[in-house]
């Protein structure tokens, strides 16, 4: 019964946490018995079971309960198979979604060498716009996961493709994550490549794309500032924030006006 398998998946994470805490008594139980079940259910015929398996896998990754060897040798090969060009449409959409969610939890080497080539292929998937849209919506997270060099060498060309996609929802998703992509690149790439690209989005024929681009204009401009002097940084969730100054703000004769805002908000918070 699919409901039984679904219930089983929901119990895997707490069991795994218990085994982790009791490792001297159960040194290999998780890797020998539970992890193979999670991997197998990623390809279950029932979509609810697959969804439960995907959620269980993400929880296990968040808790750092899956070994690097299991990720590379058991989980990644399954996801690569499910996201292959000839894979079933439903499986492919689920696979690219889980790949994007996993990226921030894995090592940079694993993402760059194993998952990034497939992600780049999926960005150009001409069959399913849903696949391209998931790639566009999570593009900033992938850039952050692989770093500047891989972003500029492999991802920026794909970002250009998505920003000119015939589906307006794709271009809107790119506009919404533009700041996160820009933050990962060098100042030269921001000036010479991303700035003209952003102008094309802010001048898009679709008003929803233009609106998203205008909402991202301020955050995009902020990526040109020197973080050490502007005090701006990107949180883990991809939002822009202000870093507290390292020195007393009164020690400087000329302070940016937003320091006043920061101090007042800090005062109110306390």
From TrEMBL:
Polar residues bias spans: 247-270
Highest taxon above the source species: Eukaryota
InterPro entries given in the database record: ARM-like (IPR011989), ARM-type_fold (IPR016024), HEAT (IPR000357), HEAT_type_2 (IPR021133), PP2A_Regulatory_Subunit_A (IPR051023)
HEAT repeat intervals: 115-154
Organism: Corythaixoides concolor (Grey go-away-bird)
Phylogenetic classification of the source organism: Eukaryota, Metazoa, Chordata, Craniata, Vertebrata
Signal sequence segment: none
GO cellular component term, pick one: cytoplasm
Disordered: annotated span: 245-270
UniProt entry keywords in alphabetical sequence: Repeat
Protein name from the UniProt record: PP4R1 phosphatase
Molecular function GO labels: protein phosphatase regulator activity
